[in-house]
Amino acid sequence: MHSNDPIEHPPETAQLDDPKATAILHAAFATFSLYGYRRSAMADIAKAAGISRAALYLHFKNKEDILRGMMQRYYQGAEIDFAAALGAPGVVMSQLQNGFAALSGETFRQLLNAPHGHELLDVKAEAGPVVAEGEAALARVLAQYLRDAEAAGRISLDLIGADADAAAGVMMQAYKGLKQDGPSYEVFCEKRDQLARIYAAALMR
Amino acid sequence: MHSNDPIEHPPETAQLDDPKATAILHAAFATFSLYGYRRSAMADIAKAAGISRAALYLHFKNKEDILRGMMQRYYQGAEIDFAAALGAPGVVMSQLQNGFAALSGETFRQLLNAPHGHELLDVKAEAGPVVAEGEAALARVLAQYLRDAEAAGRISLDLIGADADAAAGVMMQAYKGLKQDGPSYEVFCEKRDQLARIYAAALMR
DNA sequence: TTCTGACATATTTAGCGTAAAATGTCAGGA
DNA sequence: TCCTGACATTTTACGCTAAATATGTCAGAA
Fold this sequence. Notes:
Strand content of chain A: under 5%
Mean pLDDT of chain A: 91
Shape of chain A: elongated
CATH class of the largest domain in chain A: Mainly Alpha
Oligomer: homodimer
């Protein structure tokens, strides 16, 4: 490759182990939380990342690509943490509570406490299918947990008259409802734990 | 009162038994569902109601007042229907399912099927505190149901580790989450019934 | 190789005047 | 008494321009 060749953008969004991309995504998260996605300029992100604006384009195609990468990164991590929490030893209630807690950890706290963090909860349009795919992946994780727990005789889906997929879908969407009305992080956490208790009680005999 | 006195607007939003006001609110609902609240003009509502535009102002202060009246009317009816369904004879699961179904009956079906009906789900800003108060009233109804059912030994709130008010609040908000992502009415109903089954299973021993 | 300053392009913003539409009110008709 | 047509006012929608800002890309420095 010669230096006077045109820029060759990364074919996909940045890899999980690229430290530069990670730094940019962190800076972007901070910037978006502060100003909102629309009002954030590439220059703001570059400044927050401590690099020049031009360097951003060496790692991401454009602003939308940064947002996509950010969301994808979040969902990748959330999926792993979610599955880990659900799979950890313990009773069903704590597994569910820790599972949902894993979906709203420190990152989420920063988001809700930031000036325009709430706006980032509604970027489905700009972020494209990444969000829907991420949510679907989380629902699959939960569905798999339900199947495993039922196979182990720890819960019974008959109690709620549903198969694992339908149940997981409803549970995830109802959980998302708790994010509405711009609650404080603390209030949200209480409601989240409460909902997890309801889920646990519904599934256990 | 002399005819040349200035218009005397109704002090509060129209009464539940005023047939004229009811007709206007029905026309407004149809119009808002069709065009959305913002794009609907008073002339559209008047035409749908079969009266002159000026006559609207004999019953409502302005467009915002019509919206308020519409939402208030909905919540008044919903509260009554919700309480009736929860209080009807039957097992807990059917009471909860019929209760939540009462909150999304024919009116709600029309809404979701209308071109811009979804917009009406997000009019908190324009409708003011009416929506929040209506939601709170519904939560109180559910909380009272939970208390009564527990007193009768039909459910146990200990199972979900919550008092009636907290549980009702979370249950209502999680229910609202199901309205997200613009589902069809049929899909929404399935999820709603599924969530009611989860709630019932959680509360019964 | 990695990154930056600077450039050309594209987009956004704000202002401003006009036309069109919507609003709220009233005198007066049915 | 209830309602309407018409009026004055306010709000919105355009079209246009210039200025400002943001974007994406390079040649070349570090």
